[in-house]
User: Fold this.
Amino acid sequence: MSASSRPLDSDQLAAVELLRSARRFVLCGHMRPDGDCIGAQAALARVLESRGKDVWVINPDPPEGRFAYLSREVTYRAWTGGELPVHDVAVMLDFCEPQRLGALEAPLFAAGSKKLVVDHHVHAGTAFWDAAFVDVRAAATGLLVRRIARALDAPLDRVAAEGVFTSIVTDTGWFKYSNTDAETLAVAAEMVELGVEPNRLYDALYQQRSREHPVHVGRLLARTDYLADARLAVVAWPQAEVVESDLVDTDEVLDILRSVRSVEVVIFLRELKTGHVKASVRSKTEFDAQALCRQFGGGGHRKAAGATIAGNLDTVRPRVQAAALEVLGALGALGLGAPSAAGRGG
Ligand SMILES: [Mn+2]
Assistant:
């Protein structure tokens, strides 16, 4: 059996049935929607529209400009208050914590609609949804939309295919993270057969930076501190310079630091205007980024996770760093850390 046609469990079948039977949908994403979120929304919107459904796509924030090839085809509304349209089902894509809806949380839960979660994140806490199509092993939410379309017997048009492909490539770092599996590659190939031009999407996503961009990346990288024999890399970015960090794709900086041989874990700490610090954690080894972030009220995946923590860099950084060093110490004692002591080249 191919990876993209595995059987659905009973929860997933119930979710598909809700999508099949309801008529009016609102598709919601999380704050600062990423490529997986935007792509999964595009794909599910086209799939449901092909089934004659009314679909409204809305997020707390507008999509980044680099996703223009999708936002030209799909109307992404950004919540600015007012009223949500009357709808039967609100679908939450690529998140499972209602607070990630930001200002959209209150009006969405005030609406009497059914709540359906389509997601691949680990959920902590009580279930708030009416139905869920969840697989925490899936590399991207877009892959779950592909499975849903198959279950609904709905064909994907080119825009839906570009949505699924965008989901896959942004959540796998263009097929290089450990979540890249057979389903990822099989569905990517299928999307190319449906008309996606990978090079055109790569150009739109990663080759349209400003001239200043490399300088900002350089400044950020210059702030790196290596700890624990350079098994841990930490970049802390104070609020005073937040304008520049907004111009930099965090994943890009994390990727460069992860490329250092000795580094097992990278932590990027960004001070926000709201009195919080946004932590992004990436792991190359058994180090569980999700477990670390959960200690601080966040979540994500084993190899990639994040948390938004109350406080400033002076108060938050020592706590996060100490927690990470403790985990690294335990892993080191078990011999589960870097490839080998020799490989670390003392
Ligand atoms: Mn995702």
Remarks:
- The longest strand covers residues 276-283.
- The CA atoms of residues 287 and 328 lie 7 Å apart.
